[in-house]
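During the no-cost extension, the postdoctoral fellow (Dr. R.K.) reprocessed legacy sequence entries with the updated structure-token encoder. One reprocessed record is reproduced below for audit purposes.
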Amino acid sequence: MNKRSRGRAGRALLWLLAVLLMLAAVIYQRRTGPTYPLRGDVTISGETISYRLIRSEETIRDARVALPDPGSTEGWVVYKRYKTEDEWTRLPMQVESLDDGREMAAYLPPQPAAGKLEYYVELRGANGKARIPNEASTGTESKDGNIIIRFKDPVPLPLLLSHVLLMFFSVLVGMRTGLAALFAPRGMRGLAWTTLVGMTVGGMVLGPFVQKYAFGKYWTGFPWGFDLTDNKMLIMWIAWVLACSTIGLKASGKETVGRAVVIAATLVMMVVYLIPHSMRGSELDYAKLDSGVAPSEAVGTGD
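Re-encoded structure tokens follow.
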């Protein structure tokens, strides 16, 4: 293999590593974020079933809480508004026939944007009772171990897709930039600037529009709030601004410093993606809502 072929093979390997790092970050976010479905297993009526319970829904429809029907089992969804002293409401689950089987389901009422409900599922079968989540469950948000579901207004699909795809693209190129700084600095500069442009458009421009459609405010991070998602985006963006400012548009005699700053920006990106998505996100204050404040003015930052 000649030198050119080895170079191509090396670049292909670095891109492959970047893809794997990006996928790992995306999968981790999807598995750990508080708005993604809660997954687990429960045994009732002598049968173990796998469930996937909803933790995010749009304000325009009821939230369907469903799990596979184990047969000879009664179920209830028990809920109340999050962080309130409301009485618990019990909804009986009904068996529904689907193309691929039968499910037990109940429907939670929609809430205003950023409103949250706290709920759990009770099952009663021939051989006893079960609760979801149980003591062994992880990924719940309530201090009592219940499931939290947050409602959001619909976001136009083209806007949402553009935001998500540009962020995935930025993470991919950002990971590749860090690998270039470590192993093959020749293409590092162009990759770094591409990362910054993608992050600026996808995160700092389109992101606030997504936030506005979903929860009524463009930005709830620093300096106006403590939304962790917004603040993570800001920190990551600043890191890449500093990296690109350091390396500039043309090579200089400070390449070692530039490579170190780019590696640091990549590490910041990786740390940011280790923090679950939507933590400390927008949350409706029901006390304000009940006192007559408009829903759009009663949105703050959650725990």
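The mean pLDDT is 89. Helices lie at 3-32, 157-183, 188-215, 228-247, 255-274, 286-290. The remaining legacy entries will be reprocessed before the final report is submitted.
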